[in-house]
Specification:
The structure is a single chain. By secondary structure, the protein is mainly beta. The chain has a single domain (2-317), classed as Beta-galactosidase, Chain A, domain 5 (Distorted Sandwich). Helix content is 4%, strand content 40%. It has two helices and 26 strands. It has helices at 34-40, 207-211; strands spanning 2-6, 11-18, 24-26, 46-48, 54-55, 59-61, 67-69, 78-79, 92-96, 100-107, 118-127, 130-139, 143-144, 148-150, 152-153, 167-170, 172-175, 189-190, 202-203, 219-224, 232-239, 244-250, 254-259, 281-286, 301-302, 308-317. Strands 9-10-11-12-26-22-21-16-19 form a nine-stranded antiparallel sheet, with no helix packed on it. It has a six-stranded antiparallel sheet with strand order 15-24-23-20-17-18, with no helix packed on it. It is globular. The two termini are 12 Å apart.
């Protein structure tokens, strides 16, 4: 297993395995040049923060009831930390060995509208057939935080075709319905009897949907089983033709599942292959979207003296 990183966005550039012929196969989408990441603005492989996912109206009320206005970058809403989120920053490399790397970033008070100075580190470490990511942060004033990695996966290594043939399992009994702006609606919905039921592994798309090249519209948060703060298996992907499986573990409460419908043939992977809509799958562990505005969602608030921690583990088998 070989993983390449970039300081720009504390980003995963590639995640390569050996196939049966001892050739390298990259299963994490990457672009040919660093300039392409900025040009396409798709958060590919990046660390997203201060607040991953969406905040409605790009504002929230702090714990004292004061209105905090943030920088909107998706219509009236904030997405993945704002127009200059953590994905667009050059992080410092604090440590680097053959098996691990540590990135660090300081986000000043008022950055994208967020209060308080935030100090954040991201540590990636390879061990055997897995990679562990530990995200830590502290602040000097009350703020909100929700940081994830935004890698896109295709276990076949072929990004010129749909990844909807993968089998997906998500350990969640509920998901969040959304409005047209992908902001959660009131309440949680039971996955039973819906297309959001991935509790038992199943193909993302049915064979007839794959043949028709049908757009499968998944960009939703799943409310994960188990206790937030406990590292546990939350999802897995399986690609039968290659017998490859990716198992994802996290300490967070939610998982955003996005089947990348926005990719087009005008965009290319690292080897120059034109991309296909839905050619990759984003599995983003995080707290729930719009949590600062929802008392019924897990709290995203961080206070001075407390530490934020999010651990993710990707394990590859097959």
């Amino acid at each position: 297993m070989r993983v390449l990183f970039s300081r720009q966005g504390a980003r995963i550039l590639s995640f390569s395995l050996k196939d049966n012929h001892k050739s390298d196969v990259n299963i994490a989408l990457g672009f040919p040049s660093l300039g392409d990441y900025a040009r396409h603005d798709s958060y590919v492989g990046a660390t997203c923060g201060r607040y991953a996912n969406r905040i409605a109206g790009a504002h929230y009320r702090d714990q004292q009831g004061n209105l905090v206005q943030l920088a909107a970058n998706e219509g009236p809403n904030l997405l993945h930390g704002g127009p200059e989120g953590f994905d667009k920053r050059p992080w410092m490399v604090m440590e680097q060995t053959a098996s691990h790397v540590v990135f660090a970033l300081s986000s000043p008070d008022g950055d994208q509208g967020f209060p308080g100075t935030l100090h954040c580190t991201v540590r990636y470490e390879l061990a055997g057939n897995s990679m562990r990511c530990e995200i830590s942060a502290t602040c000097d004033a009350p703020t909100i935080i929700n940081i994830t990695n935004h890698s896109y996966w295709n276990l076949s290594g072929r990004f010129d075709r749909s990844a909807a043939d993968h089998e997906l399992q998500i350990h969640a009994d509920q998901y969040l319905p959304v409005d047209d702006c992908l902001i959660p609606l009131p309440g949680r919905a039971d996955v039973t009897g819906t297309t959001f039921d991935f509790r038992t592994p199943r193909a993302i798309a049915a064979p007839e949907e794959l043949q028709a090249d049908k757009v499968i519209d998944y960009d939703h948060n799943f409310c994960l089983s188990g206790r937030r703060g406990t590292l546990r298996k939350i999802a897995s992907l399986f690609h039968a033709p290659t017998n490859r499986r990716l198992t994802l573990s996290s300490t967070e409460a939610g998982l955003q599942f996005y089947l990348a419908r926005h990719f087009t043939s005008e965009m290319t992977s690292q080897d120059g292959t034109p991309l296909h809509p839905q050619c990759a799958i984003a599995l983003e562990p995080q707290t729930f979207p719009d949590s600062p505005n929802r008392e019924d969602f897990p709290s995203p608030f961080l206070n001075p003296g407390d530490s934020y921690s999010h651990v993710m583990v990707w394990q590859i088998d097959g």
